[in-house]
Every structure is written in structure tokens, then in C-alpha cells.
């Protein structure tokens, strides 16, 4: 048996998820998913056959959004704005930590 010499020869696992699996993993509805794509908050990749593929990282984001909207009785747009602001705060906190660790 010949071993692969180069890691580029090893097929990598895809980080993209199809529509149905994404809905199942996130627990969201097709309408909510469509709304998030319409407002540009979620940007899936399209295949040559026009199938939508979502990033695995977006599963966490959607679950967090669903929880936020449910807990605070927010509409999709309001929840997405809060999520964006929370992401910006986390990024700024990380930058501050990096600057103070120097």
C-alpha cells in the first residue's frame, strides 16, 4: 500500500452544509433563513446547480440569534443587529487584550 506523501493529496472534509441539514442543525425555519439571506446577514455559497451551501460557523450564529430573538422577543432584523453589535464588541475586546499583552 502506498502512503500519501503530500497532505494536499488527502481530501479534506467540507465545511459547507446543504439547506436541509442546515435547517436541521440550527432549528430555524425556512422563512427565517430566507429573511436572513434577504437582509444580507447570512451569505451562503451557490453551487453550479444553484443549491445553497452554508458554513458550519453559521450554525452557531443562527442558534445564538434564535436564542436571542426568543429570549428578548426580538424580530429577525433586531436580533441580527444585536448579534452584529455583540460581534463588534468581542472583536474590540480581543484587540484591547492583544494591545495590553504586549
Ordered list of secondary-structure elements with their pairings:
Elements: E1 16-18, H1 19-26, H2 30-38, E2 45-46, E3 52-55, H3 57-72, H4 76-100
Helix pairs in contact: 3-4
Question: Could you characterize the architecture of this molecule?
Answer:
The chain is mainly alpha-helical. It has one domain (16-101): Orthogonal Bundle (Multidrug-efflux Transporter Regulator, Chain: A, Domain 2). The chain contains 4 helices and 3 strands, in the order βααββαα. It has helices at 19-26, 30-38, 57-72, 76-100, and strands spanning 16-18, 45-46, 52-55. The chain has a 3-stranded antiparallel β-sheet with strand order 1-3-2. A hairpin with a 5-residue loop joins strand 2 and strand 3. It is globular. It starts with 15 loop residues before the first strand and ends with a helix. The mean pLDDT is 89.
State the end-to-end distance. 50 Å
- Tell me the total number of β-strands: 3
Number of helices: 4
Can you tell me the number of structural domains? Answer: 1
Pfam families: MerR_2 (PF13591)
Protein name: MerR family transcriptional regulator
Properties at a glance:
Multidrug-efflux Transporter Regulator, Chain: A, Domain 2, 102 residues, 3 strands
Give me a quick take on this structure.
This protein is mostly helical and 102 residues long.
